[in-house]
């Protein structure tokens, strides 16, 4: 494989065979998914990585970082509300809905990343 460093507008992007490297966004999606097991700790690491790498690639790749950042903040909101609602027992259902939402969102992002395109509906609060 031919790895080279491409400089465009003072931004460095690792490339393989002329296409941007998608390893970092894949890692961030996996960290978001692992956050369900680690209580959100790995998701916090993932969002920091997304903030650091945002703006260092082509537009479609930057949209993935934006999508991952929004996923983190929305998940924090949804799981926080679910935590509060557990006091009235409905929180267990909303927590399950938040888990399903997070998995669908990450799978959609990974699928779009595999197709080397921006994820659909980046600005949505849903999936």
From TrEMBL:
Subcellular localization(s) per the UniProt record: Membrane
Cited InterPro entries: MamF_MmsF
Membrane topology: Multi-pass membrane protein
Keywords: Membrane, Transmembrane, Transmembrane helix
Pfam families: MamF_MmsF
Stretches that traverse the bilayer: 26-53, 74-104
Protein name: DUF4870 domain-containing protein
Lineage of the species this protein comes from: Bacteria, Pseudomonadati, Pseudomonadota, Gammaproteobacteria, Oceanospirillales
């Amino acid at each position: 494989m031919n790895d080279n460093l491409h400089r465009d507008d003072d931004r460095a992007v690792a490339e393989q065979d002329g296409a941007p490297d998608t390893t970092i966004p894949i890692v961030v999606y996996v960290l978001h998914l692992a956050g369900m097991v680690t209580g959100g700790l790995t998701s916090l690491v993932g969002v920091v990585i997304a903030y650091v790498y945002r703006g260092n690639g082509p537009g479609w790749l930057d949209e993935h970082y934006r999508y991952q950042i929004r996923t983190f903040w929305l998940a924090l909101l949804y799981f926080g509300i679910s935590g509060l609602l557990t006091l009235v027992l409905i929180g267990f259902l909303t927590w399950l809905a938040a888990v399903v939402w997070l998995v669908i969102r990450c799978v959609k992002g990974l699928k779009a990343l595999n197709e080397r395109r921006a994820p659909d509906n980046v600005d949505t609060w849903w999936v």
